[in-house]
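Query form — protein Ribosomal protein S13 (Mitochondrion)

QUESTION: What is the three-dimensional structure of this chain?
INPUT:
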Amino acid sequence: MAAEATRYILGHTIKTDKIFLFSLREIYGIGHASAGLICDRFGISRQARLKNLPDYKISTLESYVNKNVLLGKDLKEQVTKNIQKKIADGGYIGRRLAEQLPAYGQRTHKNARTARRVKNF
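ANSWER: The structure tokens for Ribosomal protein S13 (Mitochondrion) are given below.
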């Protein structure tokens, strides 16, 4: 079985055969909308594959994303700080988060998955 070709971009190993738009979405902090905006900004087709992109486009894209987009560990730290701040403020949402209950209008009778996701902050 042949080894898959990969490339190291923005701190992540990405397969070169994948469509670049979907490859960007694997990075924590870049979703569907921001991946599309990044591709549009640099003139990259939404169907382009990573192996077909020139090195200079990838290097300029990396420098732009590093300067302008919050990613990975830094983004997770900011989210945690925001949750801790809401809890410290003692408002309604902070109390709900501290009690591990849904904070943004979700039901508590049958579904509380959102609260379970955020409880380990």
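ADDITIONAL NOTE: Helices lie at 20-24, 32-41, 55-68, 72-89, 92-98, 113-118.
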